[in-house]
Design goal:
The chain contains eight helices and 13 strands. The chain has 302 residues and is of the alpha/beta class. It binds S-adenosylmethionine.
Length: 302
């Protein structure tokens, strides 16, 4: 794995507002003990806490398969190589490599990448040889290579909290696409019910079995929507039934509305923007949960 370095001009000055782990609130903001129910808190780049435990991530999303099959099919059709932003611990990428397609992956989380390396080490040599991983920020990493398919599966773009984040990221995508290449990603539609939830309530979900300790862990979520920044602040509360102490994990997701996403793509050099529904290639309608977006460099850009 290489630690990809951003050229100087792309590096942002240290973003003090987003400093994790202490979840510092913006000046004048108030916060609870976790710093999350604070309209001044924006969310740290990479949502580091949420991705600190790859085993937990894998067990939580082990049944999410439909998107994997979809991205593998698109990767095959492109013939590769594929660039995946927010590659994580390879939930999608490993299947693309197993399908015979070369892939480069970028992720900010050392824990997720280390887990991916570990999973790769158990694969046959030819699969391992198809994957190259880079630790770095998808808003700044430059790989000096162009790809016919660039992907960002499973809400990776919801970690881009404001317009500058998105523009920096889209500029990277532009630099990595071949002239006729496609950029393919998905994002969950904002759900009015989630945005309207009472921040004082805890919403319980079925208990989990911790992948390492085997303990049963009670699980609840609390939500607060910041309508000005369009940020959904989620606090995942985990309470092991045995002796381990309770803990909580903050997660911030930017809520992108479809027309807004279209405008961002359009004004940042992308055209032929096509929305489909839930990894089906069907047109998106009112019942859609995840919108899949396919686009390419607009004629003026390419
Ligand atoms: C929901 S996970 C998706 C992982 C993988 N693509 C999948 O489908 O399972 C989002 C990933 O994006 C990464 N990420 C978030 N912000 C990032 C950033 N600014 N630069 C690079 N990676 C980032 C996280 O570390 C995490 O691994």
């Amino acid at each position: 794995m290489t630690a990809a370095k951003a050229p100087k001009r792309d590096r942002k000055p240290a973003a003090k507002k987003r400093r994790d782990p202490d979840l510092a609130p913006a000046a004048g903001g108030t916060r609870d003990e976790y710093g999350i129910f604070d309209f001044g808190y924006v969310g740290d780049a990479g949502a580091t806490a949420h991705y600190a435990d790859p085993n937990y991530y894998s067990s939580t999303y082990q049944n999410r398969r439909h998107d994997v099959a979809y991205y593998v099919q698109k990767a095959r059709a492109s013939r590769g190589p594929v660039l995946e932003y927010g590659v994580g611990n390879g939930r999608v990428a490993l299947h693309i490599a197993r399908a015979g397609i070369e892939l480069e992956g970028v992720d900010l989380s050392p824990a997720m990448l280390a887990d991916f390396e570990e999973r790769l080490s158990q694969e046959p040599a030819q699969v391992r040889a198809r994957v190259r991983l880079h630790q770095g920020d998808m808003r700044s990493v430059r790989l000096d290579r162009r790809f016919p398919l660039v992907i960002a599966p499973f809400n990776a773009l919801l970690h881009l909290y404001d317009r500058r984040d998105m523009e920096a990221f889209l500029s990277c995508v532009r630099e990595h696409l071949t002239p006729d290449g496609r950029f393919l990603f998905d994002f969950s539609l904002p759900q009015p019910a989630d945005l309207a939830r009472d921040p004082a309530r805890r919403y319980p979900a079925p208990p989990l079995k911790h992948p390492e300790t085997g303990e049963t862990v009670r699980y609840a979520e609390a939500f607060e929507y910041d309508p000005l920044r369009q940020l959904l602040l989620v606090r995942i509360e985990l309470e092991p039934e045995a002796e381990s102490p309770a803990y909580s994990v903050p997660l911030t997701h930017r809520q992108y509305f479809p027309r807004e996403m279209e405008a961002l793509l359009h004004y940042n050099g992308f055209g032929e923007i096509l929305y489909t529904a839930d990894f089906t290639d069907q047109a998106a309608d009112k019942s859609v949960d995840s919108i899949v977006v396919s686009c390419r460099l607009s004629a003026a850009t390419g």
